[in-house]
Amino acid sequence: MPYRALRLAVVMLAATATSVAAQSADATLDRAVAAWAKIRTARATFEQMLTNSLTGSTANARGEFQQQRPNKLSVRFTDPAGDRIVSDGASVWVYLPSSAPGQVIKRRATDATAMPIDVTGEFLQNPRAKYDVRPGGTGAVEGHAATALVLIPKAGREAPFTRATLWVDDDDALVRQFEVVEPSGITRRIRITSLDINVPVDRGAFTFTPPSGVRVVER
Predict the structure, then answer these.
(1) Which of 152, 131, 175 is nearest to 33 (CA)?
(2) Per-residue pLDDT for 23 more than 80?
(3) Sheet arrangement for strand 215-218
(4) Theoretical Cys-Cys bridge with 185: which of 1, 53, 95, 139, CB 3.0 to 4.6 Å?
């Protein structure tokens, strides 16, 4: 085969592969959005890894969360024990005595720079309007075969991250893991180690009272 014809064939094959991958990403995203739309409550355990690109340091944590859509969330860390993040529907409370003893940060629940109240809703609510979506390969999370999607916020769109990667379960289309790169340079990866959806939740978990002597910092 002449070189020019061979080069053309390679280009065409590459274009076809890109098109197929893009179609697969679109189908995976549609399935994930449909699965997320059916969730009303969730209980889960998770592992988190933070990586600081500036210092090269890493920090690991684990815990559990309860969620009641659309705007209530309770995250309790078991390691480091005592750390909490709570959304009561109006405010998001961030209490991390392991790293910031003596204070709790209070943000408006509508603050786009705060931790998303809906754990995966930040990614799956009108995603094509907010993000450019690209294929991210395949892998496995806690024994679940998964397809990865890469989300890049569109120009001018405010988001708490510059890039996100979701791993979507090939069977039930639930997000089993996600990773976000924050503007500060920190990469946060959260792996869901167990997940139950549409189950009873503890309504008292969605309230937070600052401990005595703790300073409340409003942002």
Answers:
(1) 175
(2) no
(3) 131-141, 144-153, 163-169, 175-181, 186-197, 41-52, 58-68, 72-79, 81-87, 91-95, 103-108, 215-218
(4) 53
Burial of 96 (0-12, 13-18, 19+ CB in 10 A): middle
Q: What percent of the chain has pLDDT over 90?
A: 74
The one-letter amino acid code at 58 reads T
Number of H helices, E strands in the chain: 3, 12
What the chain holds in terms of domains, given with CATH numbers, is 3-218 (2.50.20.10)
| Sign of the four-CA dihedral 118, 124, 128, 133 | positive
Give just the sign of the alpha carbon dihedral 139, 155, 73, 33.
Answer: negative
Find out whether 152 and 13 touch, Cβ atoms under 8 Å.
no
